[in-house]
Amino acid sequence: MDSLRAFAAQLGIADPFGAGFLSVLATFVAALAFTWYFIPRLREFAVQAGWADQPNARRLNKEPLPNAGGLAIFAGFVGSIVVAWALRPIAVELVNIQVLAILLGAAILVLVGFIDDQFGLSPLSRLIVQVFVALLLVVNGLKMDFNAIPFLPTLPDAVNSPLSTLLTIVWIVGLTNAVNLMDGVDGVVGGVGFVVSMVLLITAARFPDRAAAVILLAGLAGACLGYLRYNFNPSRIIMGDAGAYLIGFTLAAVSLLGTLKFSAGASLIVPLIVLALPVLDTTQVVIGRLRRGIRNPLGHPDKTHIHHRVLARTASARRTAVILWFVALACGALGMLLQGVPLAAIAVTVVLVGGSLWFVTHRRLRAHDRERRAEGGL
Asked: Which residues cross the membrane (predicted)?
């Protein structure tokens, strides 16, 4: 028993039988179960309502594909947080306010993303809303500190405060759009969202004052995994902008609540490494479009994203998704190593994440085989 507790401590678990760990586990399971069982019902309704992406030159689907999966991810995410609060209420008032600010911002972006999915919104209107939700976090104390970034000069408060606010807005808006831009191949964003959530969860669990971040990440990880059961190629539903905005925004916001605020001398290096895949993807796309003379690089979709390049080489959406999942996992492992997470905890994270991804993809492929036999009358 003592050896079990000692090993659990390396993973950031103070007591594997305590209320804290059990509430995190319950949050993850609740999000996973709700999303897993809710998506088929939502899909049926979406088909009837006409909530679907039509085939075009940039999409892989050959027929209309329901695009309301983001609503299921959001419902599973929020529902699991309610379960967590019921099991173990967060007593710190400031943390409660910040968590509610994140949930409110996520709800606003899910709504805007869903409207864009169904009716279309201009890039400017979406950007205005994204800046607004970023400011919502800032006024509630979720803000980067420019002076905490190493290797840079310390600035006076009169300069540091507005610069930190600007940096926070760029981080929130940039990562929200970066994740959305990655959503071009079945399973990529759902899998990467799950991987990053789990990596940040294990990292944040090592800090005793990061309970709120851990709960939010557990809920997001469970919801992403439940969604992935229906989104691995050939997908039955896609998340649309609503789901991609939710994942990108929540990861960006929770990183402010947890892993970015280490201590004096904290830096952006670790979360940037963990989130390297969407960040690098967006960076190379924007630079490439600017070089081609495109003035609005985010408003001109093309096939220069990393997932498009990998897909062109593999000729398989499944292999593309798996490759990018493990690139994200490798970045996460490197980030954990730089954060000082023990090798045992990193190994457990890699095995746990890899095993979970194998489980849901295996279930999806088995379900697809049953669907083909049913269609063939076998």
From this structure: 20-39, 68-88, 94-115, 127-143, 163-181, 188-205, 211-230, 242-262, 268-287, 321-338, 344-361
